[in-house]
Sequence to fold (384 residues):
Amino acid sequence: MKHNYNWKSKREKNAFLALEDGTVFRGYSVGADTDREGEVVFNTGMTGYQEILSDPSYAGQFVTMTYPEIGNTGVNKADMESARFFLNGFIVHNINQSSNWRSEDELSAMLKKQGVPGIAGLDTRALTIKIRTTGTLKAYMHCSSKEMSPEEGVEKARAWCGLDNQDYVIRVTCEKPYHWDSDNSKTISWGVASDLPDIDFKIVAFDFGIKWNILRSLRLKGMDVTVVPAKTSAEEVLKYKPDGVFLSNGPADPAGVPYAVNAAKELIGKVPIMGICLGHQLLGMACGGERFRLKFGHHGCNHPVQNLENKSVEITSQNHNFAIEAKTMPSCLEITHMNLNDNTVEGISHKTEPMFAVQYHPEAGPGPHDPYYLFEKFRKLMSR
Fold:
């Protein structure tokens, strides 16, 4: 028997999203029977919703998909980017029944199993325009069966502390060090087996919310990867005698994790370093740069970035709410990449030490593979 997942039908709108500015959007609950606070962001990707849902960088956020039809390909184990969903809530215009040979479960059912609330049936275009115009807003998502007025939701949104200066990394990092199993790298997208190259380098990767496709990409470039918790000290990292250190992506505000900035500062100059996303911000701050909050963040897989070294343009996958302010860039750093939409810094390298970082995601998952060459750049950095 087929289930009707068309939320355009005349169902009672039993859920709402209350914004801190007093705006309320009504819709239907399509996820867990629970309520949450979160920051509302929008993602412009047309595909890859499962990778977005399982990206630890979205912890503390309500993700609004701008593409109106979501759920068509269902969900499966192969497309997970971490062990579970970390975002605070999911917002879509219409959630569909899956129709794909790779699907193992329905999106709505998976949201419920993961304990993540979801809303469908609201005007995601209007919500996106509001966020784009006013900036990221705190919100309260009411999807539970308990009685609550929209006015109460607005007050709860206003009372929430938000993400600024908060440590959300500690909520998503691993509890203890582990070795990335090579078998996990053999099967990549579409279930195609890939021969693994010999191991040439031994690296340590900080888990600030690391995605599995980053670990796969590092292993597929001949690196043996040991993953360590976010609060691991530089001294402990160096005991592994790594050929290189990798600083991963992660959620929220880099100012909320001073311990990570300090570790990065101590490691610069002692070992080759590569950073991605939050790792980029941490390295920039470790060298003396200052972070600032973007108006509505960069979330999607179609952001144009210019490589200033060769003037080429890369289409990139991005997910961050903070960036390093160009005018605060210390003299020891060189800006290597710039965002062509808003002229924010997208890449840096150290002028005298073996270190570089990018604000975007070269591993994709989801997204384009234009910047995949950066993993090879890390190899060459360790070969010097």
